[in-house]
Amino acid sequence: MPDSLVIIPTYNEKENIERMIRKVFSLAHDFHLLIIDDGSPDGTANIVKNLQYEYPNKLFLEERAGKQGLGTAYIHGFKWATKRKYDYIFEMDADFSHNPNDLIKLRQACVDGADVAVGSRYIKGVNVVNWPMSRVLMSYFASVYVRFITGINVQDSTAGFVCYKSRVFDVLNLDKIKFVGYAFQIEMKYTAIKHGFNLVEVPIIFTDRTEGTSKMSTGIFREAFIGVIQMKINSIFRKYPEG
């Protein structure tokens, strides 16, 4: 059985999902794919179902009723993956802002010793394409803010392109991960580091979507801003067993 599973949450991604699936399955390494669809009214799940006939036993679909948040989708996927004994578990977007070719680099970083490999936009300057400057600055300084509050040395703490070794989830209590938006990505990295896992940032180029609609909102940023402070305070009273 292949050792790597890529988890992609979707909501209204009919313009991107077939191209993304075909691209991942064209890579040199043999990846499995789990699509977690939150009741997309545009028929995203039906596209995946049709492709399952073409890619049996390697393309999987979990359907959920309505939008339940990015964080809960990934937690669902992480639990699904660990039950099936994958060694390397990835999270990425469906919209090609994350280049599927970089899955190989992230996996290799974990093979070489990382427990968590983060596709980082800011480890070598600012590598973002097609974002307005306001969004670039907001994202960049969000990571500066996270470093200031939490003390963790992660240049791109809000990154959503990540490879985890499965042993990370053997130690982390996923039921204690509470945030669902931008703050989810921060909380996962912070918690992994607090447990003593080795996090490595791998430089990538992030390209904003050309098809479909962004799911970003002011509520997501608000959750991250306030959530980081809550997370830091809560960590003072929490024990983190070493991974």
From TrEMBL:
Keywords: Glycosyltransferase, Transferase
A Pfam short name: Glycos_transf_2
Gene Ontology CC: membrane
Biological process annotations from GO: glycolipid biosynthetic process
Family per record: Belongs to the glycosyltransferase 2 family.
Family matches, as InterPro entries: DPM1-like, Glyco_trans_2-like, Nucleotide-diphossugar_trans
Record flagged with keyword Endoplasmic reticulum: no
Range of residues in the leader sequence: none
Record-given protein name: Glycosyltransferase 2-like domain-containing protein
Lineage: Bacteria, Pseudomonadati, Bacteroidota, Sphingobacteriia, Sphingobacteriales
UniProt xrefs under CDD domains: DPM1_like
Glycosyltransferase 2-like domain: residues covered: 6-169
MF-aspect GO terms: dolichyl-phosphate beta-D-mannosyltransferase activity
